[in-house]
Write a structure and sequence with these properties.
With 392 residues, the protein is an alpha+beta fold. The chain has helices spanning 2-42, 94-98, 102-106, 114-143, 160-164, 183-191, 251-278, 289-302, 304-322, 330-343, 349-391; strands at residues 47-62, 68-82, 145-148, 154-155, 171-175, 178-179, 198-204, 207-213, 216-221, 227-232, 235-236, 244-247. The longest helix is centred in the C-terminal third of the chain and has 43 residues, at 349-391. The N and C termini lie close together (11 Å).
Length: 392
């Protein structure tokens, strides 16, 4: 009975993680593809398919415009297919384009002016960013923020803060040119800058001072049981009950805060990738679908607010990844359009085909690398289950 109960618990936990993952990914993918779809319709492009997932269709329906709305068996993305596309990656169908009537050309994506094609392609990532901003705005409006003054209450001996000249009682005003409004801002800005010199503006006895500090990279536990490398400088905060404030923003302010939060996540992500390329950080935090599933399940257990916040963060991630200048992704198409704008004519079909093949290889390579990193997550699952069984 003990083994059976353990297997049952493991199975129910796996189903919960899977359900959480599917909810998150379906929402984010739907928003992304809806951006493409709406702007395509606005530009007069005929859309033949709107798919959530790849592969064989589970169920679907046709709308009055002839678009097939479908759910497919492989829930790892989605696509919007136009009438002159060869596939869901919007690779032109040369045969179909060559035999089109004038009426069909009017609904053809690849015959549209350059700016319309670029608008349709950019609309997907833009929809992800707008969606995230709206989620953050709703959280700032209805949940609000609990903040505390960014005061240094202790400087740890032997750590970077001591060497940089921080003192007890300093109030941090800016980090890396970003305004600091709470100690939570300090933690986020410092933790996202391991091994990089950071300029910190502090207020000390009414005087404004500028200090330079290099956060020490430190592996710590995150809030959901994972490992993450963060920057640490060695300052501590010991707030009293009177130091805390809880603010709910008005709608306009909330939208602006949502924009700032989205910008922070984008800039932090790009900084991390730059640090990986330059060797400041390890690429072990780059994950794929297994890690997304793991995080989704753990965050869903924390509560609705954290789960909604995760959806916003992943929406930003999907939008940002799709803007990378890799053929097959939206950024790759935009790169081709930029070249077309400079040359005055599009790249040849053969050149684009080579580009798409290279892009496919790069995307597959990145997926394999992310999956390799995700093996540590799988090992964590197996380790957890083994410990659970031994304890029983």
């Amino acid at each position: 009975m003990t083994i059976l109960a353990s297997l049952t618990d493991t199975l129910s936990g796996t189903m919960f993680y899977l359900a959480s993952f599917l909810v998150v990914l379906t929402i984010v993918v739907f928003v992304h593809e809806l951006g493409h779809f709406l702007v395509a319709r606005w530009c007069g492009v005929k859309v033949t398919a709107f798919s959530i997932g790849f592969g064989k269709e589970i169920f679907g329906f046709n709308d009055r415009h002839g678009t097939r709305w479908r759910f497919a068996w492989i829930p790892l993305g989605g696509y919007v297919k136009f009438m002159d596309d060869a596939n869901g990656a919007s690779v032109p169908d040369g045969v179909a384009m060559a035999t089109m009537t004038e009426e069909e050309r009017a609904g053809s994506f690849h015959h549209k002016p350059l700016w319309r094609r670029a608008a349709v392609v950019a609309a997907g990532p833009l929809a992800n960013f707008i969606f995230a901003i709206l989620i953050f705005a709703l959280l700032f409006t209805f949940i609000g923020q609990r903040t505390t003054v960014a005061r240094v209450d202790e400087v740890v001996a032997g750590m970077p803060a001591e060497a940089a000249g921080f003192r007890k009682g300093d109030v941090i005003r800016e980090i890396g040119g970003r305004q600091v409004e709470s100690f939570g801002d300090v933690l986020r800005l410092i933790s996202s800058s391991p091994s990089r010199d950071v300029e910190v503006v502090v207020e000390r006895g009414g005087e404004i001072l500028t200090l330079n500090v290099t956060p020490q990279p430190t592996e710590t536990n995150d809030r959901i049981g994972g490992k993450i490398t963060r920057g640490v400088i060695g300052i501590r905060h010991a707030p009293s009950p009177d130091d805390f404030t809880h603010n709910r923003a008005d709608p306009l302010e909330a939208v602006w805060l949502g924009v700032k939060e989205t910008e922070f996540i984008i800039s932090s992500t790009l900084s991390y990738l730059a640090d990986v390329v330059t060797g400041y950080q390890k690429p072990d935090q780059l994950g794929g679908v297994i890690r997304i599933a793991d995080v989704s399940g753990k965050v869903a257990q924390v509560g609705p607010e954290a789960f909604v916040h995760l959806i916003a963060v992943l929406s930003i991630s999907i939008g940002l990844i799709n803007l990378f200048p890799i053929p097959l992704l939206d950024g790759g198409h935009l790169l081709f359009y930029a070249i077309e704008a400079v040359r005055g004519r599009p790249l040849s079909d053969a050149t684009q085909e080579v580009g798409f093949k290279i892009g496919f290889a790069v995307v597959i390579g990145l997926m394999l690398f992310a999956t390799w990193n995700d093996l540590s997550v799988v090992e964590g699952w197996l380790g957890f289950n083994a410990e659970q069984n031994q304890g029983q």
